[in-house]
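Supplementary Note 2. Why include the ligand at all?

Several targets in our set were suspected to adopt different conformations when bound, so apo predictions alone were not considered sufficient. For every target with a known small-molecule partner we therefore ran a joint prediction. The input for S-adenosylmethionine is given below.
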Amino acid sequence: MRRTYTSSAQPAVVVMARGPQGGGMDFFDGHLPACPARVLDAGCGDGALADRLRARGYEVTAIDIDPALARPGVRIADICGFRDAPYDAVVFSLSLHHVADLDSALDTTRSLLWPGGRLLLDEFAHEYADDAIADRFYAAPGSLPRWKERHREYHTGTAMVEAVARRFAITSLARVPYLHRYLEDESVRDAESVLGLQVVAEPRPPA
Ligand SMILES: C[S@@+](CC[C@H](N)C(=O)[O-])C[C@H]1O[C@@H](n2cnc3c(N)ncnc32)[C@H](O)[C@@H]1O
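The joint prediction is reproduced in token form.
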């Protein structure tokens, strides 16, 4: 079962399934502003998403804190305190749960967006995992304690959503399948239909 929530008067967004090759592209395709638009990919990893967005016509700045990921099209920078001209959208794809200082990252994100710009968060909420999910992940029974230990250092989905909500108006929040994407196994979907978390938010107007 897929659950979809919304915190505003806008209709909830029905998030479609992600293809095994496409990652969260359905989500980004559905929520990014139309081109031309400036997009910041925060915590871009190998830059694959940034490349896909560039292929769609977006002007993308892709940053990652890990110097080992430097390559053309990827800048090495910390999202916390990152300064640049305003963006139409800032995207975090499976990266915000890794960022050490959640509040600083989201303060920076808000400062980087035009009024009316968007934060897109394609994440997962490790605390939603149950025995079935953990056992599937490790292919072994009784794996939930191991799952919890593995993810202990990462921000929970709840913490990320609360931190976003303190600074942004959340226009859509959906819990969706995630693990099939990590395991590249579509058959996992039914067992983990709510692990993924997709959030669209806009900066709150100044008080
Ligand atoms: C799980 S990877 C996700 C990579 C990519 N976005 C994806 O969807 O495959 C998380 C990335 O976030 C990066 N990261 C963590 N903290 C960061 C920060 N403060 N600023 C920028 N990048 C950060 C890590 O270096 C890592 O490459």
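Residues 9 and 171 are 8 Å apart (CA to CA). The domain at 3-201 is CATH 3.40.50.150 (Rossmann fold). Comparable summaries for the other entries are listed in the accompanying table.
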